């Protein structure tokens, strides 16, 4: 009896210790479909790792960025795993705020990651500082029925000239059909993501090799002039306040002939539950102007481990689980191949089942491969990033310049005035930050 | 004739009042209606007002995804806690300034208000460091303290205004009867200022409930109130308007109901002393 009691006691003590030792990882993430799906599938992780519990902090992207930045800059240590964008990774890695991901396990297969995405997440020391959860580029989504009606055929790799011509032909303002919907809402991640990528195709760049702002160069004038004129002729009314969501709503309700935006939108616009044009959408590469660069960007949401965490080993296990090959199979098994987070692994695009389930797969892969974050523009640049410049000053500067360009689209200022203001803003900011004298 | 004008005036005023009321209430009504639509109906063009298939799917999904009750309890504790703590500090302060003013009282009042003039993000990093070093990050206690500090100037100003309306002679009479300072404040001043205190309490609960800068920045998961609950449904890349509306409706419903039931008290308190 005594022995039994002792054994029982010992067992309970072990169980209690087990509970006491269970580590809780706090994971900060953004609110988008793929992340929400991951939260729903965490039982798979916790059943494989019973000693690790997960606590989710899901936030809107901009709120998350502010909160996570404050925490990591002050070494607050509130989070063990962070969801951060391609913009933050090189800057934070340089600051020593992120731990290198050296121990993701033998079967993680880091070489399977898409090279374009991986290069944006690798530090100067050649180490990976964040693991991509999903990747995206931008491409043209167009209405096949409207193109047919107008007697047009979309090439796989269109030029801007063709896009503009087609947009004007399709536009029928009386029926509220607009040839093209593009971002106009001010913000470094809104209109400037689109315009910076577009400017690359027009031969423009943010800075020359000596960090001198280039808004006074003819390439920027061509790009912005083209964009404003096209939107005035063939864009929806009030385009200067349209961002991703507004354009998505317009496209899904059948009001846009074309929409150039993130590849992740493909799964929304082809979903018959959400889109009225689901069966009429075609895809093409982002347009170029024949100068050798396409106007498509490169972005990934990644999982990273902050240097201040006390639970590195558990965090590494989680990152390896969420960004590993097995996770893709898990999503496919539970939710179907079309819902697998795209744009991170070569093996996914070689999978015939995925190719069958996701008609936009090839276009997404081609778009991602066409982007080069280390050589984004036609001319040489001193920065990394296709639709952004990976320096800490870019968030503020990008938004300020975005406001000027948004005002030009709204007709409040001329293209020349907007570019002049952008040049002044950039010169002032870059001088203040010590890049130029 | 005069009666006619008066009726006309009444009609105009009533219509104008209803129009303004509906205009102000419309966004809330729209959020409420959207919460019962599907995501596709939520972005339909032209917008659907009432003629759609009502669904509870969004509420179901929000409930499944988030722990509403945890966020709700955090909001309750934080807003009531900060208001009570604020009152404990503000009643004696307002008493001192209303009944025992010095030449510098006005300056002190203005200085207090001046703390509201700086954008909060200006002190985010120092506050964050203080919270980190004192272990107050992501705790209800930390939020109670910060919201008390934020709302204290408003509480003191409101109470000061109400206390000024109370004749000092009554307090003097209490003192003559031998009441101590504490008794004077608790048994004489406070009961007389109840309408004012009640409206101050209500207004501060509403302000604390809706405060979305500090409550978002100083919490992670444990102490996150309903503001964080709403923020988790907003997304710049993806249309989740119906779900966001359901989360918003759930977050504002408690405070809306509280405001509805206490509106008489609130209006009485806010207009207290307006007519002399």
UniProtKB/TrEMBL annotation, chain A:
Pfam families xref list:
SBP_bac_1
List keywords of the entry alphabetically: Periplasm, Signal
Q: Where in the cell is it found?
A: Periplasm
Q: Which residues form the signal peptide?
A: 1-22
Q: Which domain of life is it from?
A: Bacteria
| CDD domains reported for this sequence | PBP2_TMBP_like
Q: Which InterPro entries match?
A: Bact_solute-bd_prot1, SBP
Q: Which family, according to UniProt?
A: Belongs to the bacterial solute-binding protein 1 family.
Name under which the protein is recorded: Sugar ABC transporter substrate-binding protein
This protein's species is: Mycoplana rhizolycopersici
TrEMBL record, chain B:
Q: Which InterPro entries match?
A: BP-dep_ABC_trans_perm (IPR050901), MetI-like (IPR000515), MetI-like_sf (IPR035906)
- Domain of life (superkingdom): Bacteria
PROSITE patterns (alphabetical): ABC_TM1 (PS50928)
Recorded hits in Gene3D superfamilies, A to Z, give: MetI-like
Per UniProt, what is the membrane topology?
Answer: Multi-pass membrane protein
Q: Which Pfam families match?
A: BPD_transp_1 (PF00528)
Q: What sequence ranges are listed for the domain ABC transmembrane type-1?
A: 72-262
Chain segments annotated as transmembrane: 12-33, 76-96, 108-131, 143-163, 184-209, 240-261
Q: Give the record's keywords alphabetically.
A: Cell membrane, Membrane, Transmembrane, Transmembrane helix, Transport
* Subcellular compartments: Cell membrane
Q: Which family does it belong to?
A: Belongs to the binding-protein-dependent transport system permease family.
The name on file for this protein is: Carbohydrate ABC transporter permease
Native source organism of the sequence: Mycoplana rhizolycopersici
């Amino acid at each position: 009896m005594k022995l039994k009691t002792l054994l029982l006691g010992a067992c309970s003590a072990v169980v209690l210790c087990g509970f006491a030792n269970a580590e809780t990882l706090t994971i900060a993430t953004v609110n988008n479909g793929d992340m929400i799906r991951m939260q729903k599938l965490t039982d798979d992780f916790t059943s494989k790792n019973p000693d690790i519990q997960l606590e989710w902090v899901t936030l809107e992207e901009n709120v998350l960025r502010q909160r996570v930045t404050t925490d990591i800059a002050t070494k607050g240590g509130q989070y063990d795993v962070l969801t951060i964008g391609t913009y933050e990774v090189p800057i934070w890695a340089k600051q020593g705020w992120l731990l290198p991901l050296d121990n993701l396990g033998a079967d993680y297969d880091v070489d399977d990651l898409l090279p374009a995405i991986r290069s944006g997440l690798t530090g100067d020391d050649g180490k990976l500082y964040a693991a991509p959860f999903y990747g995206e580029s931008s491409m043209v989504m167009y209405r096949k029925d409207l193109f047919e009606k107008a007697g047009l055929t979309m090439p796989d790799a269109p030029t801007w000239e063709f896009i503009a011509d087609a947009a004007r032909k399709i536009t029928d303002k009386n029926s509220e059909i607009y040839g093209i919907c593009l971002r106009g809402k001010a913000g470094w991640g809104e209109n400037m993501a689109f315009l910076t990528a577009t400017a690359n195709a027009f031969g423009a760049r943010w800075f020359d090799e000596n960090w001198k702002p280039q808004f006074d160069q003819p390439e920027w004038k061509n790009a912005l002039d083209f964009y404003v004129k096209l939107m005035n002729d063939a864009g929806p009314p009030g385009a200067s306040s349209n961002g991703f969501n507004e354009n998505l709503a317009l496209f899904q309700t059948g009001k846009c002939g074309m929409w150039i935006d993130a590849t992740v939108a493909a799964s929304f616009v082809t979903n018959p539950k959400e889109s009225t044009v689901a069966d009429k959408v075609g895809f093409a590469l982002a347009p170029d102007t024949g100068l050798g660069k396409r106007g498509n960007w490169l972005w990934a949401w990644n999982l990273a481990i902050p240097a201040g965490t006390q639970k590195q080993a558990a965090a590494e296990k989680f990152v390896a689980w969420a960004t590993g090959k097995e996770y893709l199979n898990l999503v496919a098994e539970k939710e179907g191949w079309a819902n697998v987070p795209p744009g991170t692994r070569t093996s996914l695009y070689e999978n015939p089942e995925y190719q069958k389930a996701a008609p936009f797969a090839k276009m997404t892969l081609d778009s991602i491969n066409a982007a080069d974050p280390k050589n984004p523009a036609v001319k040489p640049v001193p920065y990394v990033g296709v639709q952004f410049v990976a320096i800490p000053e870019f968030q503020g500067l990008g938004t300020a310049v975005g406001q000027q360009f948004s005002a030009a689209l709204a007709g409040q200022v001329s293209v020349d005035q907007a570019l002049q203001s952008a040049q002044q803003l950039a010169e002032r900011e870059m001088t203040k930050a010590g890049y130029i004298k | 004739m005069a009666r006619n004008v008066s009726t006309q005036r009444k009609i105009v005023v009533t219509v104008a009042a209803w129009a303004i009321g509906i205009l102000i209430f419309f966004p809330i009504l729209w959020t409420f209606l959207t919460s019962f639509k599907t995501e596709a109906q939520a972005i339909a063009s032209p917008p659907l007002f009432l003629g759609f298939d009502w669904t509870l799917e969004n509420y179901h999904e929000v409930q499944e995804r988030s722990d509403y009750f945890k966020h709700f309890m955090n909001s309750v504790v934080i807003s009531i806690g900060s208001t009570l703590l604020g009152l404990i500090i503000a009643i004696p302060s307002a008493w001192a300034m209303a009944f025992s003013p010095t030449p510098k009282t006005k300056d002190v009042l203005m200085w207090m208000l001046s703390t509201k003039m700086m954008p909060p993000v200006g002190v985010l990093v120092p506050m964050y460091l203080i919270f980190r070093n004192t272990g107050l990050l992501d705790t209800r206690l930390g939020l109670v303290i910060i919201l008390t500090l934020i709302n204290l100037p408003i509480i003191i100003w409101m109470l000061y205004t109400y206390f000024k309306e109370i004749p000092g002679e009554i307090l003097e009479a209490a003192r003559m009867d031998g009441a101590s300072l504490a008794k004077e404040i608790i048994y004489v001043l406070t009961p007389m200022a109840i309408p004012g205190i009640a409206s101050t309490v209500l207004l501060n609960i509403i302000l604390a409930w809706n405060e979305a800068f500090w409550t978002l920045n100083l919490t992670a998961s444990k102490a996150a109130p309903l503001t964080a609950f709403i923020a988790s449904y907003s997304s710049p890349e993806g249309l989740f308007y119906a779900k966001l509306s359901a989360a918003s409706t759930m977050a504002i419903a408690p405070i809306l109901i509280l405001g509805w039931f206490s509106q008489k008290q609130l209006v009485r308190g806010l207009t207290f002393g307006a007519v002399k």
